[in-house]
Design brief:
The protein has a single domain, classed as Alpha-Beta Plaits (2-Layer Sandwich). It has two helices and seven strands; from the N terminus they run E-E-H-H-E-E-E-E-E.
Length: 115
């Protein structure tokens, strides 16, 4: 298995998406493929983010599998503290998901500490 990553964002917000593929693809070839798909999509896609839209194309036409939350079989919280280790619940009902991907909060600082 070979792993690939798509990144999207700026200085304030960042998102990434991992993909897996059985056959290795040269990094330059992967880059050119992603750029080709990006140019064909631009602002015309149904997914929430550009990297998700590109991942859909990579899965449909090029043998990649996006590693997304909806494909999780198990999630385990791990901690040095025994009581903080547990099997986390995986909610697959999209109606229960929040309407945001991330939250950016710009807190005013006074003297180097948040107010």
């Amino acid at each position: 298995m070979f792993f690939y990553e798509l990144r999207e964002g700026d200085d304030d917000i960042f998102a990434d998406l991992l993909l897996v593929r059985e056959e290795e693809m040269d990094a330059d070839e992967f880059f050119e493929l992603v750029q080709s798909i990006r140019r064909s999509l631009q602002d015309n896609f149904d997914q929430d983010t550009l990297i998700e839209a590109i991942a859909v194309e990579l899965e449909r036409d090029h043998g990649f599998i996006p590693i997304t939350d909806d494909r999780l079989s198990a999630s385990v919280n791990v901690s040095k503290v025994d009581d903080d280790n547990y099997l986390a619940e995986i909610d697959t009902d999209e109606d229960d998901l929040p309407d945001y991907r991330g939250i950016f909060v710009d807190l005013p600082r006074e003297g180097g500490k948040p107010n």
